[in-house]
Amino acid sequence: MPAPTGVGTEELRRANLRAILQTVHTHGPTTRAVLTKQLGLNRSTIGALTGELQSLGLVTEQTAVVGGRGRPSHLVVPSEGNVVVAVDVGVDRIAVALVGLGGEVLDRRTRGHQRGEHDVAHVVESVAQMIEETLAQSRHHRCLGVGVAVPGAVRAADGLVRFAPNLGWVEEPFTAMLAARLDRPVATANDANLGVLAEHIRGAAMGYSEVAYLSASVGIGGGFLIDGRPLTGARGYAGEVGHMQVDSHGMICRCGSVGCWEMKVGENVLLMRAGRLSGGGPTAVAEVIAAAQSGEARAAEAVDHVADWCGVGIRAIVNLFNPEVVVLGGCLAQVWRAAETRVNIAIQRGQLISPRNETLIRSAQLGDDSPLIGAAELAFGPVLDHPQAVPQAV
Amino acid sequence: MPAPTGVGTEELRRANLRAILQTVHTHGPTTRAVLTKQLGLNRSTIGALTGELQSLGLVTEQTAVVGGRGRPSHLVVPSEGNVVVAVDVGVDRIAVALVGLGGEVLDRRTRGHQRGEHDVAHVVESVAQMIEETLAQSRHHRCLGVGVAVPGAVRAADGLVRFAPNLGWVEEPFTAMLAARLDRPVATANDANLGVLAEHIRGAAMGYSEVAYLSASVGIGGGFLIDGRPLTGARGYAGEVGHMQVDSHGMICRCGSVGCWEMKVGENVLLMRAGRLSGGGPTAVAEVIAAAQSGEARAAEAVDHVADWCGVGIRAIVNLFNPEVVVLGGCLAQVWRAAETRVNIAIQRGQLISPRNETLIRSAQLGDDSPLIGAAELAFGPVLDHPQAVPQAV
User: Fold this and answer.
1) Model ipTM?
2) Which of A55, A209, A258, B174 has its CA 20 to 30 A from that of A117?
3) Beta bridge partners of B161
4) In chain B, which residues have their Cβ closer than 8 Å to the Cβ of A19?
């Protein structure tokens, strides 16, 4: 490692602007006094920096009396005028949200779509229309970016969707198509990779740096933080947990193999095993769980079965990653809340290397919105990294 | 992120000493001219730094004419007087090596041990005796440390061996016991975590930063580099690949479960399936492979069977980590070399998210010595990190 080269005034200024903006975006309104302490800079430097962020239209300053006996302190607040558009392309529905700097969801709309409507051009058009509707309602805002979560492996370099079996996509240039249709830059990433980011910043994984996020709907997505940083792998495809072979028997998976984990614990597996039609989503899953709790034998058997297989997969993930916390989303969270004891027994049926009491397992705090909130964070990324480069036009 | 605080002269000096020492340790003798270029410092500063390393006894300088037409350049060479002791505690044998700064193995001894001899006190005594014999032969050397590889999950904080099923160890304070017996500090880590380190520094993973190392003997160990850094997890237990459930049938594993990956691809699985006695190690595995290649049906069936299951596990790892390179050691390397095509077919039988041609799969270049060489690197760690803290006594 060569010696550090000099950090010039400009880089320092950028680093300090970034630190202030990230703090108010993540933690909300913050006093200058707290910022002064956190950054280890003097009051006048902080004042100059917040002044620059204010002139960039990114923060406003309010006067507030904090505590009660001190003198009033300036409160630095994320400016309301800045938004991003976040999109979550699910298998059953598309969700689009307008999210403000600071993380508040200002507007949110969803549209159902079905298996026959997964053609990539069709999805691009649906998403684009929803985004246009959203932005039309928010003319007084400055849109800083568009972030999209998709249930598949996304190439980091250009957002190509390498493989999204539950949409039927292979090597689809979804990101480039949407960017061309909107005439705006678009950033796309895997839904679970965005889910873990959102849970880390604003949810069940706050304060942890070794995190596994596992979320099931039709398929299962996995997103991981290693030492506080997202696991991407060489090209951005890391975290594919759904096609781990956990059995050598069972139904053929969409991927062509048998015994994949997502053929054991997805929504439709639970529904069909309980004698319901597949495709009913979280609501139908909740109905089966309620029926199981009311004593319906077939529903109970289905929940038990899925709980057992949840445990098998979670055990593998804990042994591979030794996380501090495992955050469960979607159907996995529903089953965990309904059958925590049974999942725990299944986890400990095989060898768990880390002592069970050293690994937290909890439901996603943002519920099914983790990928959507993560997509907003993806869109905020460039401005949070380089506040001075914020676009000045709408 | 707060602004960088000032880097004082002492920290800068330490960073530069570290950079020079790591360069000559990893890449061998290096001219001052190359160091000057690499570190971006001027010639006189480099001269002062190499002078300090020389006075610490860590490097020597030789005059060499490089190229042919230039003026002679000083060649900075790792000093021969510095060694570490590296230990690899296997299930069948213990290996102890004396390794010089620069990575040369100066002395190497092994001792077989059997299942009845795995009692931790017995292993500590055997290892200690072998270390004493090794050090007795090297009185003119300065021993910088002792590093140990064990086939189990090791708690990073204190080297407690949390779980080493093939030694029968659970929560064994092996490291503390060996340190007390030797009256020296001892550093212990999982054998596969050290294997990936060695292959990264001196083997098949040089130049790659997303690496999966999978090595099978009786069990299977996994070691990973994520963005060039070792994957440890919260406590140091990450990388346990052997107990991933890949089947719901089969023999009971030592861990108490069924269908673990290491019950499908370990040495003894191959041997027993080929009608041989278990416990013969790599030599017996090589015999089965040779018999398979000579047309012995039962041996061929065993190799095919293990090759298929190698593919199942490698596919899961590639989907989870999206590595640039998968390095195979032990029995996995033997089967890979004998049945590469069959392993590849098995890998691609299920969905491989990353295109197959973007993931290299290769045998460990250091052979079965990867963990031993990694243990040496573990022992060199403190001196490489802080050259000025090198102990001056033997």
Assistant:
1) 0.91
2) A258
3) B154, B172
4) 1-3
